[in-house]
Every structure is written in C-alpha cells, then in structure tokens.
Amino acid sequence: MTFRLLQNFKGGRALVITRRAGWESTLETTLAKLGVACDYPDIVDGRAQIDVAMLSPERDILFVDGDLDGAVAIEVEPVSKLPPVPVIGLVGVEAPSRLKALVNLGATSFLRKPVYGGAVYSALFMGINQFLLRSDMHARLQDLEERRRGRRAVLRAIILVMRAQGLDEDTAYSQLRRESMRARQSLETYCEDFLSRWAKPPDTSDRTSGITLQGGNKQAM
Amino acid sequence: MARQQFRIGVMFSTTGPYSVVARSMLNGALLAFREVNQAQDVLSLEPVVVNPSGDLAQYRALSLDLLTSGIRQVVGCYTSSSRKEVIPCFEKFDGLLWYPSHYEGFESSDNVIYTGASPNQHVLPLVDYLATHVGTRAFCVGSNYIWAWENNRIFRETLTARGGTVVAERYLSVGDTEFDQVIATILDQRPDFVFNNLIGTSAYAFFRGFRAACRARGIDQASQIPVASCTLSEPELGEIGADAVDGHLSSSVYFSSLDTAENAAFMRAYGEAFPDGPVASADAEASYIAVRLLAAALQQAATDDARAVRSAVANQRLAAPQGEVRIDPQTYHAWLTPRIGRSHANGQFELLLEARQPVAPDPYLVQSSPRFATAMRPPLLRMVKA
C-alpha cells in the first residue's frame, strides 16, 4: 500500500456537528467552492444523529464542534486511534480538555471558530491527508506485526532444511526465499505452509491402489 | 440626480522588473475610468494611483494608506506574491481588491474579485495543445515564487497524467537574467518544448539568450524547441526584441489581434489614449474589465461598501474585448475564453485555437484535476556519467 495525497475533494460530504449560529455559513460556502457539500445532522438530547455504519471514508468528513460536550459517539480503532472517517475539530474554547476530547475522537486537523474562509482548504487538506497517512501507517504496522509473528516459522523452516538437506544456514535461507518468491508468498507465510506440510506427511493410503473408472476397466494415471 | 463619486485605488508597479506589463495594466484601468466617467451620468470615479515599484513591503504599506484614507475598492497587483501580501490588509479593513491578472489558483478570498484567468483557463488548455501538437517532454523554467511553483506543479501533474514527462525544473529570482547554465542544460536535455513561467525582465533575457544559443548550434528554436508560456503578452514581445520575438506559444484569454467589434473599439481607444505604449496586453484587458465591472457594481449597489459591491458584481455581464465576461457568484472569479496564440515578428499573436464560448472558472481545479496527486518519487538510478 502506498500513501497518495488527496488534493481534489470534489464529491465529498461534510457532516458538521454544531449548533447552528451563523458562523458556519463561511465554512459551508468555502467548502462548496472545494466541491464539498455540507450536512448538519440533528442534535437530539445532546447527541448528533449520525448513522456511523453509513459513513464512508471515501466521501465523508466529520467537522466536530469541540464546544459540544460528547455530541459525537464514534468508536476509534483501538491501536491506530483512527475514527471511521476523517475528523476535523472546530475549536471555540481553546481549553486542553476540549482539545483532548477532539484528539480522542481522532481529529487530524483543527479550525478555529468563527471559521475564516482562508483557513478551510488547509484544514481540509491536512485533516483528510493525515487521516489517509495514518491509515496507511496503521496498515503497514499490521503487516509488519504479522511478519514479526511469522519469523519463528522462518527460523524453524531454516533449521529443518539445514537438517534435511545438509545445507548451511545461508543456503537454506536462500532456498526458502527463492521458493517463497516462486510461490508468490511472503517468506513468513511460505515457511508456515512449509512447516505444516512437513508436520503432516501426505496421506497416500488411498492412492496405493488403482481407481476403477465407472463403465470400464481403465485405471487412472 | 447628483452624480455619485467614489475614489478608487489603482496599484501597479509601473517601475521595477515587471513594469512593462504593469504599465499596460494601468493603461487598461485608466481607459476604463475615462469611459465610465464620460458615459455615466450617475457615477464619477476618481482613480488614486500608487506605485509599489515591485517591492512587497511597499504593496502592504500602500494598501494600508489607501484603505485608511477611506478607499474601499482597489484595482491592482500583477504578481501572486504581491496579492498574497496585501490580502490581509483588505480583509482587516473590509476592502475589495480587484485582481486583474492570470494566476495559479487555489485561493478565493472574500475580499478579492479575480478578473484574470484561473489555471483551468490558461495552463490546462496549454498542456492539451502541447501534448497534441508539440510533444510530451517538457523542460520547465520559472521565476522563484509561488506563481511558477504552483503553475509548474499543475502543468507537471497534468502532463504526467497524459503520459508526458518533465525532464527538469529550474527557478531563478525575479529580475535575474543569468541564463547561460539553464540554457546549456536545456540544450543538453533536448526537450520537445520549454514551459516558461519567468516574468518580466528575466523572461525577456531568457527568450533572447535561448534563441541566440540555439542559433549558434544550428537549431531552429521556434520549430524544434518552442517556448510556451501562460504569461507572454504583446508589450513583452516588444521587450524581447526583433531578433527573438517570433514563434513563441502563449495561452491567454485575450490577444490584441482578436477580430471582434468590441476589441476593435478597445484597441482604437487604447491606441488613442496611450500612443506611447506599452501596447495592450491580456492583463491590460483584465484591468479594463475590472474597472468596468466595478463601475457597474457600484452603480447597482449605490455604495462602495465591499459586501454590497461584491454581491452586486455577481449579476454583471460585460461585452469585453475578448467576448462576454461575467463573474461566477460562487468563486468570484471570471468566466473567460481560453485561447492559444503564436507570436509573429510583427509583435502580434496569431490565433491558433480558441474555446467556443466562455469557460467557467475552476480556481481549485475541482472539475478538472485527478482526485489524487501524481506520486512523485525520486528515480532509483541517477546518471553519474554521461
């Protein structure tokens, strides 16, 4: 996976979680210039009415007013702390507790209230691209973590090949690596498969006798 | 009914490295002031002309002077760096800057009306023309500031998406005229064309030096390595000089050779008003358009309050020398007609291509650029010995 910078926001949808007070019209008109439509989910009993399951990271961006206490209930991914879609914090009262709440929601950029039109493009650009960058980094970390877990299998496979074929360590490693590339698998996955094949020799009991095909007396080759 | 009078700031660097274009812009604006004052019986505009001499600090200081003197509408700026320098002043004092030049886009201040071309109206049509008719290997040169950086970026991404390549980019300070090394590199690389974002005296020196270097090597520069620009205009052709004036490509929304009744009237009036030049340019026409639209908006709004004028200009249409021009009410940029021209020895541009009708401005390239930026990676191998 390679991180690619998003620079055209056309077709995006901003869900602005705030109590409408007039200042948001600057945000809305500036986002419109950037090809992003605005929606204002209702806030009922202090909670924004968002269907999290319907959010799409390809399309949606959450603008969350930090002055609303607990208006947004979204779960961030436990390891990466990433929300399901990019979150941009709208900062009114610049208190650590409110900034912390926005960070805990996974905000990747901020806009001061009242919103100044000239700051929107930068906030959107940073918010979305930091979200994509962190998503990419998380995916890379997961991949590396899986490979780290697989290193034990690589060590065991090398020792097995050394013993079975009388090879030295480097040659055994090279052979496994070459075979993994031929099989189009990571070395770790290939070695895990290799070990499981070695551990369970193929059951050949059914193959010792010929198979008689129906309607004839020929044997399968 | 008494005529309403307004003082209007006019801020162009009529001295300094890009003074030739700026003086043609001042002429375009002054012509429009004259026409408005002669034709209108309800409006009288008094231009208050200042000259920042290409000095960014002066732009800010003079903007401050104009705005604190009670002026709320200013026509001015040529370079993007000067526009970005003064925008905070206009926002602070809630004035309106009428910016009459092509620029690199990615901006839309509520305190600016943009009457020059947006990138979808200059660089994108140029890439299309070059990739179709000239080639796909480009060498980019530019003045070292945001115009060239961003215009080259848009150019590079668009050309790359069409399978082309930018073999190199070189930047020089505004006013720098030492091009020997850059020209040697271009001749070494032999691109299909040069994309030029140099401005003012730097551009003129480059055109002359490049033509001479090509001639010394037996290369017909205009046909073998043409130079394409989004800035080159008629008064600059005169500055380049007769020896190197022909065969340059320019993407512009206006050429003084346009064959329309409105342009004939504009050229006649301009020539009569300013017989000593500089001759009219696309930026002069944009300045003329800015003042004419400003006058129409002032007349409708009956005040020079920035918000009232801004909302009034969205309804205005003008039969400009280039064709119909109107302001887009969402972005406050202008609908303009893109064209490609090639310079001739007579100091005029021959029209090669033009859009059939005015094109909507797209300052953020929302309608005309890919969703993701082109991934730029350093090459894995680098030439160490030729």
List keywords for this structure.
heterodimer, A: 221 residues, alpha/beta, Rossmann fold, Arc Repressor Mutant, subunit A, 2 domains, five-stranded parallel beta sheet, two-stranded antiparallel sheet, 5 helices, 14% strand, elongated, disordered C terminus, B: 386 residues, seven-stranded mixed beta sheet, 12 helices, 15 strands, globular
How would you describe this structure to a colleague?
The complex is a heterodimer of chains A (221) and B (386). By secondary structure, chain A is α/β, with parallel strands linked by helices. Chain A has two domains: 12-139, Response regulator (Rossmann fold, 3-Layer(aba) Sandwich), CATH 3.40.50; 146-199, Arc Repressor Mutant, subunit A, CATH 1.10.10.10. Chain A has helices at 24-33, 96-104, 117-165, 169-182, 187-199, and strands at 12-17, 36-39, 43-44, 47-48, 60-65, 87-91, 107-112. Chain A has a five-stranded parallel sheet, sandwiched between helices. In chain A, strand 3 (43-44) and strand 4 (47-48) form a beta hairpin. In chain A, helix 3 (117-165) runs parallel beside helix 5 and helix 4 packs across helix 5. Chain A starts with 11 loop residues before the first strand and ends in a 22-residue tail after the last helix. Chain B is 41% helix and 20% strand. In chain B, helix 11 crosses helix 12. Chain B has twelve helices and 15 strands. Chain B folds into two domains: 4-117 and 259-336, Rossmann fold; 120-256 and 340-354, Rossmann fold, CATH 3.40.50. Chain B is of the alpha/beta class. In chain B, the strands form three sheets. Chain B has a seven-stranded mixed sheet, sandwiched between helices. In chain B, strands 2-1-3-4-5 form a five-stranded parallel sheet, sandwiched between helices. Chain B has a three-stranded antiparallel sheet with strand order 11-12-13, with helices on one face. The mean pLDDT of chain B is 94. The chains are: A alpha/beta (221), B alpha/beta (386). The interface between A and B is medium-sized, with 17 and 19 residues.
